[in-house]
Task: structure prediction
Amino acid sequence: MATESPATRRVQVAEHPRLLKLKEMFNSKFGSIPKFYVRAPGRVNIIGEHIDYCGYSVLPMAVEQDVLIAVEPVKTYALQLANTNPLYPDFSTSANNVQIDKTKPLWHNYFLCGLKGIQEHFGLSNLTGMNCLVDGNIPPSSGLSSSSALVCCAGLVTLTVLGRSLSKVELAEICAKSERYIGTEGGGMDQSISFLAEEGTAKLIEFSPLRATDVKLPSGAVFVIANSCVEMNKAATSHFNIRVMECRLAAKLLAKYKSLQWDKVLRLEEVQAKLGISPEEMLSVTEDALHPEPYNPEEICRCLGISLEELRTQILSPNTQDGLGIFINFPKFSQTHHTSSATVQHG
Result:
């Protein structure tokens, strides 16, 4: 399990063309030189699509594409964010007045998620300002976790500016939680692999508690990551959260069926753990408890003994309260909204 502090190392910027270009652009933008750089990679998942938010293990690996941020702390409270991509406009605010608008998943809000997560973890009210220039080469909205890489980068930037220290596991957990400020109810896989990844190995990521185990990649294997070029911004639509809410409702129905305290349950793995059964037995319980035909909200409410208003306000996420649909399907984790996938070829 990787729990060591985030690695820092000195680099000669002139030896890295991308860093040198970022330094020059930073100087042109802010009239000064960055004090440090932070990097967080994207990821591709090999096994376990859409099950991390159910509490189950996944097998991702990091990719070379990443988010880089050049940073200069300043003596004021001003937070100035810029991006090397002209499609993403500059943004500035007070570091002590972070506001994240869930209705507008603009690029800078992902940075604010990471900053706010670290700020709240340490219970800080006064943060120093900073100038930041972001450079990313992860295809956006492609299922390679560009947004999570930015959240992780921002968390590490804030931690460094504060002069504080956390383990990689702690950082991953904080950033997984803080990305939900933008409205995405993710499970933590993306942030975990971004911090815990190591060259030459995939990672078996397990939750509660978070831990990562090396899975050595086959010698001579080549992973081909294919991007369909269809973009899906998780925070800008309800598609991702609909799947999360369907799984959450399934967990609650299973818990009620087995006379467990269903109102405290959020994930399917919690039900399995409370019942003390194997995954195969869990599948059998699911087939007994849930019918294959779609459920409508009224049936969900009857089964749980709650009102439609309680369903909306106490269980569903804000962007699924009115858009969950007339019928609710409980899938067997076969569908995915990611547009990138990895296949392996033996050379």
